[in-house]
Design goal:
CATH superfamily of the largest domain: Glycogen Phosphorylase B
Low-confidence stretches: none
Order of helices and strands: EHEHEHEHEHEEHHEHEEHEHEHEHHH
Number of strands: 13
Shape: elongated
Helix content: 40-55%
Structural class: alpha/beta
Number of helices: 14
Distance between the termini: 15 Å
Mean pLDDT: 94
Largest sheet: 7 strands, parallel
CATH class of the largest domain: Alpha Beta
Strand order of the largest sheet: 3-2-1-4-5-6-7
CATH architecture of the largest domain: 3-Layer(aba) Sandwich
CATH topology of the largest domain: Rossmann fold
Strand content: 15-25%
Radius of gyration: 22 Å
């Protein structure tokens, strides 16, 4: 029997791959013990117990960004958090640690290093976070989701994905998906989404050019987000929804996707072999553009900047792509080559290797 501690959380980008690996570990050897380390403030506090995994807590210790009182307290708070994790490692007799970044990961890496317990780092974004940059320096093995990610000693393992995506047979589910969205399964479908709250630029561009897409013979499923202010034209070929509750069915129906390029989104779309046009979120440190880079380099996707995604750009670049069946087929083949559905298994293989090296 092996005892695993999976550390990470804060955002969905850290929690979801962690949960995919936790589920895969439990499915592989039910007798193994799998624990999750997180903070009380992150999404993991809700999502981990919902999936039936035991969640253990460590204090949230943000890295200081400026020389202030919080920075002065940081060394003491970090030392306390590391002590918390070391106690957990001993009490639960952990054999191997797998970290996914976020607030829980940094003290976990330090604790595992001091306890001489092998640990693995997985980085979901093309631009690594600080916790994983530090952890990779002493990790037994390091895996990244995207080619070109600059992380010490890393190898490309892909993204651990949700089971409903890993197991999705899109052709077999197309009729069901078309019925769910009340569309024709025999005609092509453009899937458009920008996150749970929506993407204003994407929504406004579609509002100005959706009829050109429909006139090209395509149907549209457009998730506009919970804060959308774009009116639904109520056209039979243009389905406007606030949120995609059945993302599996949306993917099963999609012949081309327009979306933001979050790490999970790019990984899921590539794993399913769907051509895409990515509109990277313009706020942040540029990681979304980097996330899409490997898919673009492989010929699986196009990128249009947020500022340039306009109705005119849709008419001038997207609509011609919708009419170019051979080009989309080349993109589909390229996406299948660059993506993988075995991200969780690949991370577990790193953990197996780390444990055997012990």
């Amino acid at each position: 029997m092996t005892r695993y501690l999976l550390a990470g959380g804060g955002t969905a980008g850290h929690v979801n791959p962690l949960l995919a690996v936790a589920d895969a570990l439990r499915a592989r050897h039910p007798e193994d013990e799998v624990y999750v380390l997180g903070t009380r403030e992150g999404l993991e506090a809700r999502l981990v117990p919902e999936r039936g995994h035991e969640l253990l807590f460590v204090d949230k210790v943000p890295f200081p960004r400026r020389p202030d009182a919080a920075a002065a307290r940081f060394p003491f708070r970090l030392r306390h958090a590391v002590a918390q994790v070391r106690a957990i490692l001993r009490e639960r007799d952990i054999d191997v640690l797998i970290g996914f970044g976020g607030y829980a990961a940094a003290p976990a890496y330090l604790a595992a290093w001091r306890e001489k317990i092998p640990f693995v780092v997985h980085e979901a974004n093309a631009k690594p976070g600080l916790a994983n940059i530090l952890g990779a320096r002493a990790a037994t093995a390091t895996g990244v989701a995207f080619e070109g990610t600059k992380l010490r000693g890393s190898e490309v393992v892909g993204m651990p994905l949700r089971r409903e995506i890993v197991d999705l047979d899109a052709p077999a589910r197309r009729d069901e998906a078309a019925a769910f969205f009340d569309l024709d399964p025999q005609r092509p479908v453009l899937l458009v989404f920008g996150g749970s709250l929506g993407a204003r630029r994407i929504n406004e561009a579609l509002a100005g050019a959706w009829r050109d897409i429909v006139d090209a013979g395509w149907q549209i499923v457009h998730a506009v987000g919970e804060k959308n202010t774009i009116a639904d034209p109520e056209h039979p070929d243009y389905r406007v929804v606030a949120y995609l509750d059945r993302m599996d069915l949306a993917f099963a129906l999609a012949d081309l996707i327009v979306a933001r390029s979050g790490a999970a989104t790019v990984s899921e779309i590539s794993a399913l072999g769907i051509p895409a046009v990515y509109i990277p979120y313009a706020v942040g440190n540029g990681e979304q553009a980097l996330n899409a880079a490997s898919a673009v380099a492989a010929g699986a996707a196009l990128v249009i900047s947020d500022a340039d995604f306009t109705p005119e750009r849709i008419r001038g670049e997207l609509v011609p792509l919708l009419k170019d069946d051979p080009q989309r087929e080349r993109m589909r083949v390229a996406a299948s080559a660059v993506g993988t559905r075995r991200g969780a298994e690949n991370v577990i293989a790193l953990a197996d290797r780390a444990q055997s090296a012990r």
